[in-house]
Design a protein that fits this description.
The chain has 315 residues and is an alpha/beta fold. It contains 7 helices and 19 strands. The longest helix is centred in the C-terminal third of the chain and has 21 residues. It is elongated, with a radius of gyration of 21 Å.
Length: 315
Amino acid sequence: MSDTTIEKVHVLIIGSGPAGYTAAIYAARANMKPVLYQGIQPGGQLTITTEVENYPGYPDGIQGPEMMVHFEKQAARMGADIRYGLATKVDFSTKPLKVWIDEEKEIHADSVIISTGASAKWLGLESEQRLNGFGVSACAVCDGFFFKGKEVAIVGAGDTAAEEALYLSKLCTTVHMFIRKDKMRASKVMQERVLNAPNIKVYWNTETDEILGEQKVSGVRIKNVVDGTTQEIPISGFFVAIGHQPNSDIFKGFIDMDETGYILTQPGTTKTNIEGVFAAGDVQDKNYRQAVTAAGSGCMAALDAERYLTAKGLG
């Protein structure tokens, strides 16, 4: 585009969850003058989480959106240049690294930290989105505690769903597990654990018809896909465990990824296959997916970027 404006930056951070903001805090303190673009969901997945009780330093817990405001303010106070905008295209084939924002502004960066996160896959029900944070969750480890001693449901058939069902079974009286087919995708050992858990009730050939409740989840209506019959089950919590989608599409063709799109980093580092490009947080972590681990990898990415720039004489 001939009318594209070009800006040169030292460190460009793409994404604004715990990983991006932590990278910005460290990079700004190291006088690397980071520029951070917040992306389509400033604050990331934590902005759709209500209570966060497992992040160190908040003894009384904190609301997810409020916590992200704290992260942003701290990064800004350190001198990070935080902007609203979405990275829409990249070209990592030459130096400087090129990133386009909102398809019009072109950034030339000495180093790039990718912290675009991952998005939970949802069933696509109106009630699911309306009650998200009010009994509907995509993270049992984050929110299971709030349903201690209550009945809950979980949908999913893979290892993550099995793991989360087992986690919930230690906290909840009954876990209703809905599986769309007549078999699970989970590994044999995980399937055995689920089927042997006395308080996990598995429903085969079952899909969710509707999540019930006005202000909060009160039940679920399920449908048998074989005979079309429906039934309603009273529950307090509904967990969606049908997977996550890493927000990595724009980096395809440049950055090495696994078959599901998670960015591959060199073990023990945030380095990608492209020199000067680092990845932190859920876009490269499909195992833990916690705010605290994302923040930790954001710190690592800033330190890795600082060492890279110093070694290149750009520090």
